[in-house]
Amino acid sequence: MIALLNKYVGQNSSYYSHTKPWHIKPSVFTYEIQKEFPGRDPLQIIADGLFHEVFTVVEIFLVLSRGIYSTRSESAFIDVYQAFQLSGSVYKINSSFEIELQIEEESAKQIESIKPILAPYPEFSERFFQAVGNLVGRRAKPEDVVKDVFVASEGYLKTVTATSRFGDAVKKLSKEGLINKEQKKVLEALHEFRSDADGAGHAGNSSTPNEESTLWFLDTMIAQLRMVNKAVSRS
Q1: What highest taxon heads this organism's lineage (predicted)?
Q2: In the prediction, which pLDDT does 95 show?
């Protein structure tokens, strides 16, 4: 990525005659980056920064590249796009030059399917879909997304079972035959993933979730909520 940036960030030759510059001026690039990351060198952020810092630098680069000569601007976008594709990244660049998480078509359908289930519960629905948006748009850490998805889902389960705790909700669903043993185990595993001791909610023994494990958590929770909703609707 450093080589790619160096290809487009540089001094413009005095004999260059086009209206738009050939390069992004280094001083302009550094200034815009340091508005986000005061005192830090853009290339150093690319070399050893946190993933969200690197992506912010790339997004700023893409915005600035719109101001250079047309074919160069197009080339910059293509180069970054291909770099993401070739690396097998779970991220993509959208038409607004923003880097966002790629959601598989089937996952997108599953997310959409949960809307009518949560719609009667605005508080839970808002928190759930805000978390999804934060995951896709990189506006929150994966562990915070897990927390918010869980809290919204927990709220739904406690409401439909008239209980006050997640564990009690699961026990009641199981006791009334609305979920089977395997579903109960899955719900308990989701709780454990989020739990203080072993999950993402606080510092624990397990590793911090990444985007892929957070997507797994989201997909699995949606599947369970759909099955619970179907069972409760029949009872």
Answers
A1: Bacteria
A2: 77
Closest CA to 118 of 72, 157, 76: 157
> Do 177 and 121 lie in a common domain?
yes
Task: Return the sign of the alpha-carbon dihedral for residues 13, 14, 15, 20.
Answer: positive
Instruction: Look at residues 85, 101, 117 and tell me which one is the last residue of a structural domain.
Output: 101
Residue-wise over 19-40: b if at least 16 C-beta within 10 A, else e?
A: eebebbbeeebeebbeeebeee
Q: Are 82 and 140 in the same domain?
A: no
Max alpha carbon distance in the chain (Å)?
81
Structure tokens at 174: 């199981």
Name the residue range of residue 29's domain.
2-101
DSSP state of 18: S
pTM: 0.69
Closest CA to 67 of 12, 13, 126: 12
Q: Where is the domain boundary, 50, 75, 101?
A: 101
The pLDDT value given to residue 210: 81
Look at residue 15 in the predicted model and tell me its pLDDT.
58
